[in-house]
Amino acid sequence: MAPKRSANPGKSARYYAKNPKARAKKNAAQRKRNKTSANKKYRAELNAARRADGNYGKGGKDYSHTKSGKLVRESSKKNRGRQGANGKSTKK
Length: 92
Description:
A two-stranded antiparallel ribbon has the order 1-2. The protein has about 90 residues and is mainly alpha-helical. The N and C termini lie far apart (about 30 Å). It has 4 helices and 2 strands; from the N terminus they run αααββα. It has helices spanning about 10-20, 20-35, 35-55, 75-80, and strands spanning about 60-65, 70-75. The chain folds into 2 domains: about 15-60, no CATH class; about 60-90, no CATH class.
């Protein structure tokens, strides 16, 4: 089942909703990035943490990597919206 649409979407979500060509380009790049072994390992680590916590598949907060490498719970909007200049990650 697809996630519910936000009642208060962020700036990027509003932009991609209005610009289908830009959204298609972003999704193509994301599909390519998601196939890399580094990204698979990253997702597996977060999924393992959610399983251990008993939250896997139940919605709720995301796990986020901190600068020290620790995992912390954080709202998905804050976690996924945090992106530094030139695409450089700005970990919590």
